[in-house]
Amino acid sequence: MCSSRPAAAFAIPADGRALTTDSIVRLSHVERSFGAVRALAGVDLDVVAGECLGLVGHNGAGKSTLMQILAGTLQPGSGSLVVHGRDLTAAYSVGVAQANGVRCVFQELSLCPNLSVAENARILHPSIRGFGWRRRAGALIVGKLDEIFPGHGITAGDIVGDLSLGRRQMVEIARAFSVSDGRLDLVILDEPTSSLDSIVSAQLLAFVRRFISAGGSVILISHLLNEILSTADRVVVMRDGRVVDARPAAAHSHGSLVAAMGSVAVEEKHGAGGASKRGSGTPIVEIRPERQRDSRRLTVHRGEIVGLAGLAGHGQTATLRAIFRAARGGSNAVQGSVAFVAGDRQTDGVFPLWSIAENAIISSGARLARFGVINRAGEAALAAAWKQKIGIRTPDLANPILSLSGGNQQKVLFARALGSEAEIVLMDDPMRGVDIGTKQEVYAIVKAEAERGRSFVWYTTELDELKHCDHVYVFRSGAVVADLSRAELTEEKVLQSSFEIAEAS
Amino acid sequence: MNTVAAPTRSPLARFATRPWIWSFIGALAVWVATIVFTGGKGAGEILSVALTFSSFFVIVGVGQMFVITTGPGNVDLSIPANIALSGALAMILMDGSNGMILAGLVAAVLCGVAIGCFNYILIRTLQIPPIIATLSASFIIQSIAIAYGRGLKIKPPPLLTDLVQAHILSVPLLALFVLALSVGLAFVLNRTLYGRAVTAVGQNPRAAELAGISVGRTRFLTYVLSAALAGLCGAMLAAFSGGASLNMGEEYLLASIAVVVIGGSSVAGGDSNVPGIWGASLFMYLLVTMLNTFGVGAGVRLVATGVIIIAVITIAGGKSSGRG
Amino acid sequence: MTRFVSPRVIRALLPALSMAVLLVAIFVIQPRAMSYFGLNLMLNLALPIAFATMAQLCVITVNDLDLSIGSFVSFCACVGATFLNDTPLLGVAVLVGCVGVYAAVGALIHLRNLPSIVVTLGMSFVWLGCSVLLLPTPGGTAPAWLIAIVKFKTPLIPFAILASIALALIVHAGLMKSAAGAVLRGSGGNPQAIARAGWSLLRTKVTMFALAGCFGVLAGLSLVGMTTSADANIALRYTLLSIAGVILGGGEFVGGRVSPIGAVLGALTLALAGSLLSFMQISPDWQIGAQGAILIVVLALRTLVNRAEARAA
Q1: Contact B207 A351 (CB under 8 A)
Q2: Which of A447, B208, B222, C266 would you label with B74, given CA atoms 20 to 30 Å apart?
């Protein structure tokens, strides 16, 4: 597979651009921010015809933002976007992207679950119409499925909602590669194998190579480094919204990629080394993740800060929710009351119509109330105390919650959980999009509360935060794959376990 | 046009933007227009009658408001059938005897409670949308009311009739009673854990569950509350109109939703207020009075009501997210 | 892989099964109902309900709900009994205008992102008001040609049944089988995906609301042809019946999952419920209750199927 790489793809490292003229898409100095968070901090990237570009990076490195800009679903904040040699920065949209032969397979599917496979194919191809359209759309999509995934077992009449997640993913991929009357030059695949088994994944990667040799281009995003190394011609590594490394895949190894993704200077010293408080008495949480095959348990003791690491979406949040349900349902897997600090503030945390104070004390109201009547004075005092303690920056707690910045909203959610009587606090990657100052304040409070005997289960996608934990569980594919005490914890070990080589099973 | 929107608002500014203010302004404007037309004649009477009739809207409107507050898709369509059945039941139990008034009222409320439980059982066990659950329940309740109350010619107890038609200083006693009831319910909404749970669930059920609120229990209590209020309304309405009739609840289906919308509560849930129900009920009734006074018929009145509902929701707007 | 009968098939067959059970029960109790005359008697008012249900189905397909369809059908019936008879051209113009209003309501709901329940609630007052203005007291006369069409004696099978079958098949072809129908249903299933593929969501919504208006007009005309005169309240209960019919026919409130054939079967089932009761010599008081009970039973069965499916998965 490593033999037929276009010479043009060999480029100078540390810069995403290849020295060639037949570029399909060229991004220059693209920036994009969401509030205070800079998702892309000036990215240069070039994709040429007939190459497969591998894109890797840890959570929050900016890969998804970059892809959304390429697909036309997000506008760049600044920088330029040149497609087929024409600067389309101003006019770029989904429609323009498609007209220029750029398609994207998003991680969240864009199929209509109530329609059949053929009907979904038709949605993308307006030219398929009139008598016999269903047959033609079906032939197009099934033909492409046959080509990519021989033996797929999907028929054109299947309703997408009835298909397994993996098969839906196959339909989505086949649809992206199908051509009726337009052009197709570049397909972006964002974690395409996340819900495919190893055989189907291999079929897809083989097809990608065939597509490349026929002159097409692919951007492949994957956390399975073996896939990247075996399929891509060139690998671009992103970190903190920048391209930090770009080299031919042949120049990389599994180890060199992991090293490129990590922080510039790996801190050798972690606090006081082995000051782990592990293993005192019986655990207050003892739970097995749902997809855990072996007998490994996740345990938490009193006063402990337990970290859950690994790539986003590998079962950490599901495990937190399982602990929450177990505690609320009175299961003896969890001894003690729980509070939940949401990471996805808008979906799981904030009550958008309420004031800051109301948002902060919602979980404590029942404790302060008498006969079901709200104790206003007590609640006001509690809210004021936490405003002071956690430093919520607002002139008035009666202001609406949405008047606060994201970081301060997050502090309110912390105040909600810490102000309750809960003995165990579950944190669902709560520092997403929070500025560094706020983070430091919250770290200090978490530490102080743990010393007072509270336990924390802390899912985080930021490797730096793990060093605040007494113990770390690394998750992959819904199960715990590594179990590290603070003494054993290194960034490399966490990355190594998160990006495990796909086992040939 | 001042377009400067301060990110944080002072308490005074927040009062001025209370959503229920507009329904009262509307009611006042309509009332003033009416008495200007009549040359000041009957201003007090109009208001007194309006208070009486609004009271019935308020009782069911507040119940519907609680249901709508628990979030999108929650609505109680069984109110009219409930009114018919509870009214008939109360009349039969009272049987024209003053001694049975209390028993009859309690029975009407309990009948409502039973209907509310039935509604929620359907929603919970059949996992069907509340609209279709309360709809199918209402079909059955309506049949029971028809079978049970056909040809019912029982007059309400004279004492009860006197009470619902009595006036204290020309203010209807009924309106005072409903005012007290609505103050109580406003307290429940704003100052109790249950009321707060209703508002929380309506804004964000996922966040509510994670904040330790039982979403299921909150919704259950809300459907029971709405049905109990409709049951009470049924008994009062029967007493007021000299006996129960099968179709006396008919207009309350659309009206109960309309007063919630006009009163400034959000149909998306999580944001509601009791005063607005009063303002909207008065507005709706006074609008009828005004148009009657002007000599326009029922048709124009209905069209005007519809246009106002659409105008209110268009100006108040839907959720601003989702497009862009 | 080799499952004998998939839950989807069972769900799709439920409306037909419930209607079959009802018919068999009727025929067992009253064999004479199994005749041209009997069927005609039982089903003559089913056609307008079927049209109204189809109108509701169009709106539900795009994740909205129409609370005004009952008063709209009443209004169309009133127009049929007045303008259409007296000044046919004006009558046609008014009915076409009505369809335009429906399309405008759809556009308003989409552009301002409004809850359809409230907007159509307002429209229900508007239509009712217009009906009252048109026909303050029951009356009017339907045009003779309309009566002739609706009461046309088709050979072998009554007109109402043939027309219902035709309606089901036409909408099935248009919405379930055509290329455009796929986009329309898709905009209920995953609006974002439809927009990403470059289709206008405004256009799909306006189309579906305009179609709903067309079916509402047909419901009103077929109703007034049957009754020959109209009044403002003639079809108010169609609002709830049409929602019930769509759901009974296997439709869901969100997600663009609808079934035109199922919806027609649902409407016929609801219409037949009353006949069964009268043959069983149960008081007609219970007719509405029986409709409610049928709804609950069928939905309970569907929930059972869904649970079995979830357990199997």
Answers
A1: yes
A2: C266
> In which residue are the tokens 């045009």 written?
C143
Nearest CA in chain A to C199: A123
What is the predicted pLDDT for the residue at C258? 92
For the domain that residue B191 is a member of, what is the CATH number? 1.10.3470
- Smallest Cβ–Cβ distance between C125 and the set B126, B127, B305 belongs to B305
- Residues of chain A below pLDDT 50: 1-20, 264-274, 502-505
Q: Please enumerate in sequence order all residues whose Cβ is within 8 A of that of A208, keeping only pairs 6 or more positions apart, or say none.
A: A52, A189, A218, A220, A231
Give chain C positions within 8 Å (CB) of A126: 198-199
Phi, psi (degrees; rounded to nearest 5) at B20: -80, -15
Class of domain C14-304: mainly alpha
Q: Is residue A114 within 8 Å of residue C188, measured between CB atoms?
A: yes
DSSP state of A370: B
Q: Judge whether B32 lies within some domain.
A: no
User: In chain C, where are the structural domains located?
Assistant: 14-304
Which domain covers residue B58, as residue numbers? 44-316
- Chain A environment of C178 (Cβ under 8 Å): 133
- Backbone phi, then psi, for A247, in 5-degree steps? -145, 160
Q: What is the pLDDT of residue B54?
A: 94
φ/ψ (deg, to 5) at A110: -115, 50
Which pTM value belongs to this model?
A: 0.84
Q: Contact partners of C by the rule of 3+ C-beta pairs under 8 A?
A: A, B
Q: Are A323 and A290 in contact (CB under 8 A)?
A: no
Instruction: Please give the Cα distance from C102 to C119 (Å, whole number).
Output: 11
For residue C306, give Cα distances in angstroms to A300, C85, C309: 38, 50, 5
Ordered DSSP codes for C87-98? SHHHHHHHHHHH
Decide if B143 touches C, using CB distance below 8 A.
yes
In a domain, B3, yes or no: no
Q: When comparing pLDDT for C306 and C148, which is higher?
A: C148
Contact C123 B313 (CB under 8 A): no
Instruction: Select the residue from C288, C297, C301 to test the B interface by mutation, using most B Cβ atoms within 10 A.
Output: C288
Q: Does residue B75 sit within a domain?
A: yes
Chain A hits for B193, Cβ within 8 Å: 365-366, 369, 372-374
